[in-house]
Design goal:
The structure is a homodimer.
Chain A (H helix, E strand, L loop, with lengths): L4 E7 L3 E8 L4 E8 L6 H21 L4 E8 L25 H8 L5 E5 H12 L8 E6 L3 E7 L2 E2 L31 H4 L1 H14 L4 H6 L8 H9 L3 H25 L3 E5 L7 H14 L2 H4 L3 E4 L6 H8 L11
Parallel strand pairs in A: 1-4, 4-5, 6-9, 9-10
Antiparallel strand pairs in A: 1-2, 2-3, 6-7, 7-8
Helix pairs in contact in A: 3-11, 5-8, 7-8, 8-9
Chain lengths: ~325, ~325
């Protein structure tokens, strides 16, 4: 059988990652183009189109036939129509965009598949990453926001109107903080990067000793989640306390899904997960402590394997899923 | 085509409901037998076997051929093996029982299907009750405990090891009350009948005026959820405040599922739902207020239709589900 190839695109808040993938999951090429600081619809489309022109040229020069294009995007995406429908705090102007039409406008000769960024990440990890061999998994990305994707019975579960998977907006403290989504006490309000940084700032104001104080030298704007996770791995007390609080909230959200859906595995990716196994281990312990033992016994909590390539890989895979027409 | 018939059994904490159902969902006969106050495995089996003997005799005298027997039971039930595995606070001695073997011991000639009580309720409401016409639903029973059943893509979703559906044990206040399940801040700890009664007692101690005080005449042991819901419907302040608190917690749990799974409908049954549409309306409002608008728009929140017959009807239906062999 001749190999097939597809283009995968992962639109993020700061850049467009993309690449060329073969149907057996090999990444033949992968790169990114930054988005401009000041963004609007037109500018984002310019970057996407330029990225696509580049990768399609490359494929042509290598005589590789492209079977389709897949794109993962922030916001909730209607998989059938390609329209961005829901909540997209980092790219608010993107709501209402039609991803399929936007791509076909410049490149009418290709079939286009479009889905939510966390969904395509889940698909990639399921087929080629940490989720291989499982049939029921929850995939999370921990970053500025918290994204979720569900594989149930071996298929991406999108919900009745394609708005499923919003793990970040499950309430874990029902009388708690207001969330941008309109809800209250969502996981995202306690376990995202902004929540972590807020916690650190508040602890630093109250306490004296932390390696973070030395690193920041009074400029708290320099604080990043990478620095916090470095300090956490060194055993810094302030960082450890803040990470433990984040883990407690995150674990409660995971336990909600584990008790409700009894998945085989939870796969954790995104910026915070990059800090490594120590962090995942804490999550694992907190979930075991709180979850129903029937549901946590045998449950795997694993770090995502594909890193920041998961998005464009999963986007390319959208066109090769079994029974893709009937999926919801 | 000749009609087929099945026996359905619904084991509860205080009685065994059972009946004879035709494959097109008609209840030809339905009744119950109480369980003794002091219960153990042997006594529960005696009641189940006596109920089955009665209904099978009746079917025989009417010359109706029984195609199978279905049973819904508290605890998490392994659908394949028939074993009660998980958490069962109301019938703790029941864990470890094998439902299929227990029935076949006395009635070896029938194929037996067994599942969790909330799952069979969900199946009945989906096929014959308030869930007809939807493909993705969450079914809840509000009582001493809070049970949950999920229909996803038109099929009962059981999870990877049959422990799915535990809506009552999703954390909604992650630093909150300890729950019997080992977790913290579960929906059940805030939205079950015991939680409601505790709230009422605490309010009555602090306030003077409530119709409940007149009804109870100082004997707070007489307090029941029925009385509370009566007072709530009369507009009693104490009852309204307690019900509103319960609704707030329950709605947070529902929002978690709605944001995660984007179902078409949530169906609410069990003792508390019997109090009627006013109560359901409050839940509907609270869910709309907190949920992501993309996911609550078009969402139906409905009262269960089959009442306390849903359990044995759904149990009988277990044997007639499409593709039942491969279901998990």
């Amino acid at each position: 059988m001749r190999k097939k190839f597809a283009v995968g695109i992962d639109l993020g808040a700061t850049n467009v990652k993309y690449g060329l993938i073969s149907s057996d999951g090999k990444v033949l090429y992968g790169t990114l183009q930054p988005l401009p600081e000041s963004k609007n619809r037109r500018r984002v489309w310019e970057v996407i189109h330029s990225a696509m022109a580049e990768v399609l040229n490359r494929a042509q020069s290598q005589k590789r036939k492209i079977s389709h294009i897949g794109i993962g995007s922030p916001g909730t995406v209607n998989f059938l129509t390609g329209k961005v429908q829901g909540f997209s705090p980092n790219l608010p102007f993107w709501i209402g965009v039609n991803l399929k039409q936007g791509i076909n406008r410049r490149f009418p000769e290709y079939e286009v598949f479009a889905d939510n960024d966390a969904n395509v990440m889940a698909l990639a990890e399921y087929q080629l990453g940490a989720g291989r061999g499982f049939k029921d998994i929850l995939c999370l990305t921990l970053g500025t926001g918290i994204g979720g994707g569900l594989i149930l019975n071996g298929k991406l579960y999108r919900g009745s109107r394609y708005f499923g998977g919003e793990f970040g907006h499950m309430p874990i403290r029902y009388q708690g903080r207001r969330c941008l989504c309109g809800g209250k006490g969502c996981v995202e309000a306690y376990a995202s990067v902004p929540a972590l940084l807020r916690e650190i700032r508040s602890l630093l104001r109250r306490r004296r000793d932390s390696v973070l104080k030395d690193w920041l030298r009074g400029d708290s704007k320099k604080l990043t989640s990478q620095l916090v996770m470095e300090a956490f791995k060194l055993g810094d007390e302030v960082a450890t306390e803040a990470v433990d609080r984040l883990v407690e909230a995150l674990a409660a959200g995971i336990v909600g899904v584990v008790n409700l859906l009894n998945p085989e595995a939870v796969i954790i990716g995104g910026g915070l997960a990059d800090s490594g196994e120590v962090f995942i281990k804490r999550i694992r312990m907190a979930v075991r402590e709180r979850g129903m033992s029937s549901n946590t016994r045998g449950l795997k909590i694993l770090r995502a394997k594909l890193g920041n390539r998961a998005g464009f890989i999963g986007a390319a895979l959208l066109g090769w899923q079994r029974g893709k027409e009937s999926q919801r």
